[in-house]
């Protein structure tokens, strides 16, 4: 059974409708993840977890500690309830046993991962929800946690398009299998050159992308090339959305992984970027040409990094959720960021969420928009360079 909770008011009676073109129109329906049964992933070609100070040195894996899971779930549940109290319909995934061996005819993997960050798996563009390919073997089967929700959406909204990108084979040919043997020991300038040239862990054997590497700005979609999204994945998305302008962007971050903490749309004409991960100059020029103001986020003020068993950057502070053009949910301890954005006229909703980070991200990662008011708009009428 899908958990909707005790939503009251308009959202309890309005028909289910899939519709979301950006990240700032008024939010009506959302998925919020769960921490249940999450694990520290077993090693695989694309990712290696190494937490020697927390009891999980490289090569070890297994369930996340029970007390961490309980605390994360408490914060996720409270967040979901706060959204319901604001009249927003909330769905939750159905966890499976992530601490089990999974396989395809091509490979076996000792564990799965979890279902806290639905933003990684699902991409809503208009009336379509798209299941991403994923590039970790441990996340190949993660879509199963969301299938009950997608089935209900499909049955409830006759306009809803339910799509799944081609499931990848993820053989060794999809990876530079020796990448992690040397990458972290390279000088920063060499790492940045590899990011710029897209010489990273994924090959171009097949299209690969995470949904969280796509930033939605109405008619324009910006796809970050990263550790989990390759050029072939970008090309697949470009062909899949022929009525959109789909742009590939690179980062100046040595470890690019998901765009939603580095290039964050706030409302039409305003975007936040991570000061440590500047966008390339051509992208910044393109936004400025179209009269967008670019805010450089303040340094994360209170992120005790690295938290136990967390692979997230302190810049997860910028991973926030818009309830509408004027209202932002921000992790409660990020006071400096809240003050910075309040000066731009935003109402800030502080949300306790620090315990959720080790399970895969922040407030944006933990959610997927299903319905927002509004339609597809063109926010970039002036073209520039390759954009």
From TrEMBL:
UniProt-annotated catalytic positions: 210, 258, 365
Chain positions covered by the region annotation Disordered: 94-113
UniProt GO MF annotations: glycine amidinotransferase activity
A biological-process GO annotation: creatine biosynthetic process
Cross-referenced SUPFAM superfamilies: Pentein
Similarity remark: Belongs to the amidinotransferase family.
Protein name, as recorded: Glycine amidinotransferase
Organism, scientific name: Streptomyces inusitatus
């Amino acid at each position: 059974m899908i958990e909707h909770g005790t939503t009251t008011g308009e959202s309890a009676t309005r028909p289910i409708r899939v519709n979301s073109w950006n990240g700032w129109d008024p939010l009506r329906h959302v998925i919020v993840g769960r921490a249940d049964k999450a694990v520290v992933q077993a090693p695989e070609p694309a990712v290696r977890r190494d937490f020697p100070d927390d009891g999980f040195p490289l090569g070890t894996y297994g369930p996340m500690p029970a007390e961490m899971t309980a605390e994360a779930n408490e914060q996720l549940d409270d967040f979901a309830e706060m959204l319901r109290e604001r009249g927003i319909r909330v769905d939750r995934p159905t966890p499976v046993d992530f601490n089990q061996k999974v396989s395809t005819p091509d490979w076996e993997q000792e564990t799965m991962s979890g279902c806290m960050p639905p933003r990684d798996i699902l991409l809503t563009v208009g009336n379509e929800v798209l299941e991403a390919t994923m590039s970790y073997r441990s996340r190949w089967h993660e879509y199963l946690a969301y299938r009950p929700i997608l089935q209900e959406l499909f049955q409830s909204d006759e306009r809803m398009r339910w799509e799944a990108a081609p499931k990848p084979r993820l053989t060794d040919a999809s990876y530079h299998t020796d990448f992690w043997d040397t990458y972290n020991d390279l000088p920063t300038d060499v790492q940045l050159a590899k990011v710029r040239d897209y010489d990273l862990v994924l090959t171009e054997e097949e299209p690969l992308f995470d949904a969280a590497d796509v930033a939605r700005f109405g008619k324009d979609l910006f796809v970050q090339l990263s550790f989990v999204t390759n050029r072939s994945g970008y090309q697949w998305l470009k062909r899949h959305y022929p009525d959109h302008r789909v742009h590939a962007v690179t980062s100046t971050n040595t470890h690019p992984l998901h765009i939603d903490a580095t290039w964050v749309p706030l409302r039409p004409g305003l975007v936040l970027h991570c000061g440590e991960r500047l966008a390339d100059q051509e992208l910044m020029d393109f936004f400025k040409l179209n009269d967008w103001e670019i805010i450089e986020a303040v340094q994360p003020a209170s992120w005790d990094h690295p938290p136990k068993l967390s692979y997230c950057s302190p810049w997860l502070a910028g991973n926030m959720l818009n309830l509408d053009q004027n209202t932002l949910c921000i992790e409660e301890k990020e006071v400096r960021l809240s003050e910075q954005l309040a000066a731009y006229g935003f109402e800030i909703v502080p949300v306790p969420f620090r315990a959720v980070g080790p399970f895969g991200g922040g407030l944006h990662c933990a959610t997927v928009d299903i319905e927002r008011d509004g339609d597809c708009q063109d926010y970039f009428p002036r073209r520039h360079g390759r954009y």
